[in-house]
């Protein structure tokens, strides 16, 4: 099996020098770029990529907003936990999770024990700008996005801090964020 870190990176020309033998799971607030960065990270490491939200929608045959609307957040989080548990059965892949996935005790324990958790972070102002481009985020439907994101960050960031690695992206190019993740994984 090919070692995805045993090759030169385009930007640095250095060997990464580490074997990935379990999933890399991206966590963080909505709008931080888990899916976009995750796709690029997977491509750079020659690993499969999977978006947990897309897998949840496939499993439920409903959009996430519809699941929230019809059944509520608790129902969604239970389904999310089960889908992530299934995804964790694969050893080597990059998984982007929804912003609240890591808040579930069982999901968090599973990720921390069977994967490498990477907290992608960005300033709230940047996140507000990004999430205001689309109206598909159920947690933002009933209020001011900035206020909601600040409240979520206050609650979630201490839990996200339990991740194995913390990488701040802000408005950096996605490839720079990918390279910063790879640097963090080398340590």
Automatic annotation (TrEMBL):
Substrate binds at residues 53, 77, 99, 156. Binds 1 Mg(2+) ion per subunit. Gene3D superfamilies: P-loop containing nucleotide triphosphate hydrolases. It catalyses: shikimate + ATP = 3-phosphoshikimate + ADP + H(+). ATP binds at residues 31-36, 137. InterPro entries: P-loop_NTPase, Shikimate/glucono_kinase, Shikimate_kinase/TSH1, Shikimate_kinase_CS. The keyword Repeat does not apply. Keywords: Amino-acid biosynthesis, Aromatic amino acid biosynthesis, ATP-binding, Cytoplasm, Kinase, Magnesium, Metal-binding, Nucleotide-binding, Transferase. This is Shikimate kinase. The keyword Nucleotide-binding applies. Catalyzes the specific phosphorylation of the 3-hydroxyl group of shikimic acid using ATP as a cosubstrate. Pathway: Metabolic intermediate biosynthesis; chorismate biosynthesis; chorismate from D-erythrose 4-phosphate and phosphoenolpyruvate: step 5/7. Its EC number is 2.7.1.71. Its main location: cytoplasm. Its cofactor is Mg(2+). It is an enzyme of class 2 (transferase). It is found in: Cytoplasm. Monomer. Belongs to the shikimate kinase family. One of its GO terms (molecular function) is kinase activity. It holds the Pfam family SKI. Mg(2+) binds at residue 35.
